[in-house]
Fold this sequence. Notes:
Elements: E1 2-7, E2 12-19, E3 22-30, H1 35-50, E4 59-63, H2 69-86, E5 90-93, H3 95-101, E6 110-117, E7 120-128, E8 132-134, E9 139-142, H4 143-150, E10 155-159, E11 171-173, H5 178-187, H6 189-192
Parallel strand pairs: 1-4, 4-5, 6-10, 10-11
Antiparallel strand pairs: 1-2, 2-3, 6-7, 7-8, 7-9
Helix pairs in contact: 1-2
Amino acid sequence: MKILAIETATEICGVSYIEDGNVIATVEESIPRQHAKSLPLFYEKLVANTGLILSDLDGIAISIGPGSFTGLRIGLSYSKGLAFGQGLPLIPVPTLTALMDSGGEYSGAGLVLLYSHRDIVYAQDFTWDNASIPQNDPGPYQWDDIKRKIKKMDHVVHWGCDQFINDLNNIQQGNPSAVIISILAHQHFDEWVINKPYDLVPNYISPFEVGERKH
């Protein structure tokens, strides 16, 4: 199975190519607000380095959110453009699941955090059984509410929350990466694949819903 994976949900922009479970090559960089310009260049570089033939792919994986509104829109639009030209399916990969997996194996209760803006973070609960297993839907939360929860967790992975975590010692930085997106897409292909992704949209999860959530 051959899959091209794209990650643009954060300031990280990347493309990765996986074949039969083996990651062949990755082009990736932290480039805030430059995804629209850089993503096509990264793809062209990956093709040049690997000889990848688009029509040979079994699908294109995309980090589907939550995350940066602009980044998610750019990544999905580019993925659709590549997919539609060859009639390829898309594999939407939950961004927080990929971020949680980037923190390695763990036991007990897990929590993943992705910074949104001001004091708002996207968060989701997980447990581990050979992979991270979601225990609820991702949602936006205020940091003060999440901080109380962190202290009760066995394993916490974050991205972009450095300004908040000075006094917390059970939290580690994750790694948003097209590599993780490609691996998860390969593992969950039959479960997640969308053969006609015309109406697929990013999982934006508006941060303005935070006031309506129950903690």
